[in-house]
Prior knowledge:
This protein has 20 helices and 30 strands. By secondary structure, it is α+β, with helices and mostly antiparallel strands. It has four domains: 2-32; 47-155 and 179-214, Penicillin-binding protein 2a (Domain 2) (Alpha-Beta Complex), CATH 3.90.1310; 220-557, DD-peptidase/beta-lactamase superfamily (Beta-lactamase), CATH 3.40.710.10; 579-631, Trypsin Inhibitor V, Chain A. The strands form ten sheets. A six-stranded mixed β-sheet has the order 7-3-2-10-20-21, with no helix packed on it. It has a five-stranded antiparallel β-sheet with strand order 12-11-25-24-23, sandwiched between helices. Strand 24 and strand 25 form a beta hairpin. The longest helix has 31 residues, at 2-32.
Amino acid sequence: MYIFKKRLFCFYTIILLIVLIILIRLTYLKVIANDEYFLNALDLWTRDAPIEARRGIIYDRNGKVIVGNKLTPTVVVIPKQIENKEEVAKQLSKILKCDVKQILKHLKKNVSVEIIKPEARKISIEQATQIASLNFKGVYIVADTTRDYAYEHYLAPVLGIVGIDNQGLTGIEYQYDSLLKGKNGAIKMYVDAHGNLIEDLSDEYHNASSGFDIYLTIDLDIQIAIERIIDNAVAMYNPDEVIAIAANPKTLEIYAMASRPSFNPSNYQDYDSKLYNWNLPIFMTYEPGSTSKILTFSAALEEQVISLKETFNDPGYRIINGVTVKDWKKGGHGTETFLEVLQNSCNPGFMEMGLRLGKNKLIDYMKKFGYGEKTGIDLIGETTGIIFNPEKMSDLETATSAFGQGISTSAIQLVTATSAAINGGYLLKPTILKGLGISNTHDIVYQTTPIIKRQVIKESTSKTVADALEHVVALGTGRSAYLEGFRIGGKTGTAQIAENGHYLENQYILSFIGIAPMNDPQIVVYFAIKNAKNTIQYGGVTVGPMIKEAMISCFSILNIPKQSGGIPLDARYWIDKKSYLVENYVGLEKDKIILNNKYNIEYIGEGEKVIAQIPEVGSSIVEGGTVLLYLG
C-alpha cells in the first residue's frame, strides 16, 4: 500500500511538472515572445509586389529638364490566387499583344509573386487601365517608370542608356548610376497557405525612395544650338562623322557635347551598339592637324626660342633628313614674322619651331598640355591618344609633330589643351557634373568646383597666345569666323585621315577651334568634320562659318556683350588657293577629255566613256584638287 501511494505521488508530481512546464512555455510564447513569433508568421503570410524607385532626373546647369521619367506600369501576379489561369492568360495576351502560352507560363509558376516580364513590364497607361478593369483576382498593377528623353538624339552619347531594370548601362546614366537609381519599395499583401488574402490584415505600402537628381554643366540652349549646326553640316556635306564641344575655358565645365551619327536612347536597341557605346568627342582619336599648332606656338614662346616679330622665310617646303615636307600653300608664304606664321598656319614655320624646341621639350610640352593621357572627364570610354617617345624620334618626326601630324588626340584633349593656352596657362580637369539635388525639393546637396591639374605656361605667355589667336581670325586663315564687334580668336585645322599606316587620298578631318572674347575668354567651341563631301577641303572655309554661327548663339545665351579694342578684319578676305567650278565630263570619251592646270583628273574603272563623276558638275573644287571620273 505504501509503495502504491508513493508511485501515485510521483505520477501526480510528474503530471504537475508537465502542466507547469506547458504553462510556462505558453506564457513565454504569449507574453514574452509574442511579437517575434507574430513577425515570423507575417513573413510566411507576406507577398511583396515590388515598386521600382523613381530614377533621379537629369537637369542642365540652369535647372531645365534634360531627362525625366514617365509612368509605365508593370503587371505582377500571385499565381495561387488566380482561379482560372487559362482565361486570365487569354485576356492578358489580347491586351499585351503577345502569345497566350508565354503568359500562361508565368501564371503556372510555383512562386509566391511573379513579375510578368518582359511581356507586361513597363506597359502603357492604356494597357494598365484595361487590365485593371478586368478585376482579376491575383493580378496586380504596380508603379514603374521609364526614362523620358524629350530631346531624342540630342546629347544621347553623353547621357547614355538605361536597361529594362532601370540600371544605367552607358554614359552619365552608368557613371552616376549609384546616385540616380534610388531604393525600391513594395506593396506587402498577407495571404494564407492557399494564397487567399487574409481579410483581418490590410495591405502595407512601403514607398520607394527616389534617387538623387543630377545637374550637369551642360547649357541646354547651347547644346540645342550646337546640335542644329551639326545637323545642318550633315545635310550639306554628308560627312562620315561630326564632333562638337563647347566649354568654359576658365573652368572646363562642358556646355555642350555632340556627335554624329547619333541615336535615340528611347529605342537604342534599334541602332548599332557602337553608337551608344562610343562617345566620339572623348573616344575618337585622330591627327589634330593645325589646331595643335597652338601648343607648339605656346611652347616656343614660353621657351623664348621665337619672338613674334622675328622673320622667317617660307619657300613652300622644308627638307629634313632628305625628305621634302611641303607647305599646304603651293609656293609658300615667303618672308613672314612668326606671328604671321601662326596667322597663315605655315607648316615650315612650325617645323622650325619644333626643331628649335627639340624633341624632348616638344614632347614634354605636349604632355604638360595633356596629350597622351586621359583628361579625367567624368564620362566612361575616354582614350589617351598617341604621342611619340622622344628617345625614338627623328628630326622628321619632331618637325611633323610640331604641326599636328603623326600624333593623335581626342576632341576633349584639344579643348582642354587650348583652354590652358589662353586661360592664364592652367590645365584643368574637364567636368560634366555640376551638382546633386534632393528629388522633389530641388535642394542642392553637392556642387563641383574647378580642378587645376598644373600650370603649363606663364600668364604673360598665355596672354600673348590669346592675342595671336585673335590675329588668326581677323587677319589669317580663320577669317570666316570673324564677327564684327566681338573679339574671336581661334585656329583652323585640315588633317589627312590616316588608316592602317597610310593616308587616304582626298579624305580629311576639317576642324576649327574658336575662343571668345579674347580679352576675357568665356567660351571655347570646337568642331571637327570627318570626310566631308562636295566642299573645299579647308577647315577655315568649311568649319569656320559653323564656329561663327555657334559663337553668335553663345554670345546671346551667355549674355556676352560686344567688346572694344578688337582687330579689324582684313578686307582682302581670300583663301590661299583659288577654287574652280567642276566641268561636266559625263558622256565624254576618255581620249577626248582635255586636261587643265586648275585641278587633277583621276580615272576609276575600265572603259572609254565617263559614266559618273565626283564632285558633281558645278561643284567648287580647290586648286590642285582631284576630280574622280568613273569609266564604264
